[in-house]
């Protein structure tokens, strides 16, 4: 992968390590071999009688453990193939990036490879006059640990691949990234109005390579701008795909010219978006799962309703935060140094509602659940967010009128229902907000 020198290189390396399924098991393999050598070094004839084995027994036990670990590794790989099939068929291919990072899965693989290496290393040292009694006992204990982890992994596998469990995981990740980013932006607010120089020459810094914008080194960009006493204006949203040669940063003002290569090294580009600094990508995954459930091949509106529950939860978090769509960040002295484009409330709401409304507009259950979500947003969020919500309510009403030409069916589809069908309650919701 070359020498890692820049922040962007280190970020990509961290992403590779997090997504890799071989690095942690390889570490387990090496540790298993090293622990076997340590067990041989401290082996003694003074162990309790129950820890002594004949050469035949030790060879049989270790041989069985080696074979069992290979079989269990194949079993876990088979489960991984099933996950890929389910994720790409009924969930969202974007979810695979999160599944690769599952720590429990890597721990299971590392335990299996470590136990294999440990047992195989001991097996080579078994002789008729020399049996690694301590090692054989530890190998048995390692098998027990491996089986316990396997059971935990199977329980996790069977429960965590339900769409509602994935929606909960993704929504929590997106919420944490959003709240953390909002707090960081508030903490870096400039003194005064944070005006950005608009006169003078503008230096355009173009990206040298293409890819999706995965993350910005915000402290690094601020420090670099402060060093040249200028302001960096980022021109593209995080998550955007940029081809080589795209203007990525505009430099306003300054006493010297920053090095374009150094500025580019503070922006991480990759093959696809990540959630690290992009909470909208979490919302994108949730919407993908919902519309996949609404496809004619699946036709599962109840799953879509369950996902909408978490979309609504995420929107309530976003809607309570002021989103100007443009963020000015300052250095330690309070001087404006970095301008980042951001998504406003309209962008988040459109992403959350548009495709679900289009693909689920013919479903009574989806129309009623979307109506309840929009009414709930009107009830809970500040008035500044209401115009966008009412615009989406109007589009939903037009979709209902277009899909349900029969008055009786249309009247049913127009009702707000938090469960889609079977949970509507008359109260201070629906009609009051729709008529506002």
Secondary structure layout plus pairing:
Blueprint: H1 7-19, H2 23-42, H3 55-90, H4 96-99, H5 103-123, H6 133-160, H7 163-187, E1 202-206, E2 211-216, H8 218-227, E3 231-234, E4 241-242, E5 247-252, H9 260-264, E6 267-270, H10 279-293, H11 301-319, E7 326-330, E8 336-341, H12 345-360, H13 364-380, H14 386-403, H15 407-413, H16 430-434
Parallel strand pairs: 3-8
Antiparallel strand pairs: 1-5, 2-4, 2-6, 3-5, 7-8
Helix pairs in contact: 2-5, 3-5, 3-6, 5-6, 7-10, 7-11, 10-11, 10-12, 11-12, 11-13, 12-13, 12-14, 13-14
Fold and architecture overview:
The chain has 436 residues and is α+β, with helices and mostly antiparallel strands. It has 16 helices and 8 strands. A 5-stranded mixed sheet has the order 1-5-3-8-7. Strands 4-2-6 form a 3-stranded antiparallel sheet. It starts with 6 loop residues before the first helix and ends with a helix. The C terminus is likely disordered.
Please tally the β strands and state the result: 8
- Alpha carbon gap, first and last residue: 59 Å
Shape: flat
Characterize the main sheet. Answer: 5 strands, mixed
User: How do the strands line up in the largest sheet?
Assistant: 1-5-3-8-7
- What would the average pLDDT be, to the nearest integer? 88
Task: State the helical fraction.
Answer: 55-70%
Q: Class by helix and strand content?
A: alpha+beta
